[in-house]
Amino acid sequence: VNNYRPISLTSISCKLMEHIIAKHIFHHLETSGLLYPHQHGFRAGLSTTTQLVETIHDFAMTIDGKQQIDVIAVDFAKAFDKVPHNKLVFKLERAGINLNIVKWIKAYLTNRNQVVKVDGHVSSPLAVLSGVPQGSVLGPLLFLVYINDISAILEPNVRLKLFADDCLIYSTVRNKDDQLRINNSLQALSEWCKKWNMEINYSKSTYTHITTKKSVLLFPYVIGDKCLVNVTQFKYLGMTITQNLNWGTHIEDVCSKAYQRLCFLRKKLEHATQDVRLIAYKAFVRPVLEYASVVWSPKQNYLNKQLERIQR
């Protein structure tokens, strides 16, 4: 049940109005420089790939400098569902959004109800008291506005990368003071979450020491009163990142996923023409092999052979 989310089915006229308002808000935020520059979610010209390029570049520069960078991957629990409407309206007003538009959004969020329909049976209506409408035009933008000020809470030299609610906090660590600066930022994040009704999923939030040094500085990290789990690799935006930035594990995952899809297509398209098979391959297999490849494109022959084997 926890894997399901209600989708807002709005009318055509409402969608048109949402597009008009979203365009106005985006223009205001972008021209005013209010949006956090390292938030790449739901923004024109930015994507998971651009976010990964920037992030991995930071990691690689640290490793090339024979240093250590500690990375905390923070997972928010049902972030889109927990946004309080009154606090969202406050942040819209604080961002300088036209008050008439803010009033329209307030009315748009008020008195919403949802029902569940299973096998022809419909539940009683349930009032929606929080959250941005998922599946709507405005929902993603409203969430960006709500989470935007999270960048202001961090200590100096502690970096933050956001893709919607996917959050990475990291910094170069040379000594105990650097570790303390990260932990102070994590405590500030905990206080921010309490103030703005966000919840951290501690079981999915981890930290990794990224370095090729033999002597790793093994510092612990805490959010609130919860000690985070140390892992040697983690998933970020669909990419497996290891503590030494070796792409072997990620490429194995990519090849495994692509091979599964290829086997499925071979079975289902056994009697299809060559043209149909090629279209299916380009639609379902090649995107898996090429996703963010600008970041992890391998130099080792054995990794290249793994990728080429899928394409023969």
In total, how many domains does the architecture comprise?
2
- Class by SSE composition: alpha+beta
Estimate the global geometry from the Cα principal axes.
Answer: globular
**Helicity, as a percent range:** 40-55%
| Secondary structure tally: strands | 13
N to C succession of SSEs: HHEHHEEEEHEEHEEEEEEHHHHH
Unreliable stretches, pLDDT < 50, 5 or more residues?
none
The first-to-last residue Cα distance is 41 Å
Total helical segments? 11
| Strand composition percent | 15-25%
Q: Quick one: biggest sheet?
A: 5 strands, mixed
Kindly report the spatial arrangement of strands forming the biggest sheet. Answer: 6-7-1-8-11
- Calculate the mean pLDDT score and round it: 94
Rg over CA atoms: 22 Å
Secondary-structure blueprint of this entry?
Elements: H1 12-31, H2 48-64, E1 69-74, H3 85-94, H4 99-109, E2 112-114, E3 117-118, E4 121-122, E5 126-128, H5 139-147, E6 159-163, E7 166-172, H6 176-195, E8 206-210, E9 222-223, E10 226-227, E11 229-230, E12 233-236, E13 239-242, H7 248-268, H8 274-284, H9 286-290, H10 293-296, H11 301-310
Helix pairs in contact: 3-4, 3-5, 7-8, 7-11
Quick summary:
By secondary structure, the protein is an alpha+beta fold. Helix content is 44%, strand content 15%.
Which terms would index this structure?
44% helix, 11 helices, single chain, 2 domains, globular, 15% strand, 312 residues, 5-stranded mixed beta sheet, alpha+beta, two-stranded antiparallel sheet
